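Sat 14:20. Reprocessing the chain from the morning session after the first attempt stalled halfway. Input below, unchanged.
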Amino acid sequence: MNYIFSKLIGYLRLMRPANILTAITDILAGIAISGFLATGLGDVQAILQVTCMAIATIGLYGGGVVFNDVFDAALDRVERPERPIPSGIISRTEGVVLGSYLLLLGVLAAFTVGELSGFLAIGIAVAALVYNKWGKHHNLLGPVNMGLCRGLNLLLGMSIIPHALEKYGWLAVLPVLYIAAITMISRDEVHGGKKRTLMYAALGYGIVYTTIFVLGGLNHKFFEVIPFLLVFIWMIMRPLLAAMKEPTGPNIGKAVRGGIIGLIAMNAAWVAAFAPFPYALAVLAFLPLSFLLSKAFAVT
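Finished this time. Tokens:
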């Protein structure tokens, strides 16, 4: 029984449960931006479509982060020997099998919603594998590659109404920028980093929350968006400013975790800008659960 339990926990650690919740909120933000939630979830078909989108991103994100540990197994033996693969709890082969099943699940679930959604899911899976194998080793292309995965995830949510991509597809640039900033600073969370890198991240963050603020105003949802933006800014800027003051590994690690978990507040702000207020509250409700999971399972 202890063996089975340790295996289960090992698999969950590989999948980063707290992060997966942020990916689900990416999808919900995309669905809101598409206009799908403007009139509510009025029938079973609509609920099933949203559910399949959530299952798709669980598989795609989970598979992507599992392969991250698969490809980093040798490095983790030196820098993070407590992780499931270098510690021996999960074998590298078991990681490959789990990651492959999750990516396949994600792609198949997306195709149940539509052909465009399915092809976007394939793009996410490919982008994740490219990042894990090659992208992360490039100073500039790596952060952009990682951001592309999140940008495509937002587009995946929007694809629930395919023609919405024509009007709002450009918004995918923002999660690319945001995640690129987080990825850029995350490289220094082991050994510490430079203040300049953190300042670039702050600039990227600023562009993101300013754009959400402007779009909320244009959609006449200024007052609905503001509370969620304040939560978002507090979550990401408080640890980032602390890291700027003292750019040590632990402080940078806190800034990275704040940036990742803060995605939920960011996505709640997106939902507030494009959908009825209760949906934004429902997205923000993921935040305490993600916090709890982040205490038990690593987010980086």
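The chain has 15 helices and no strands.
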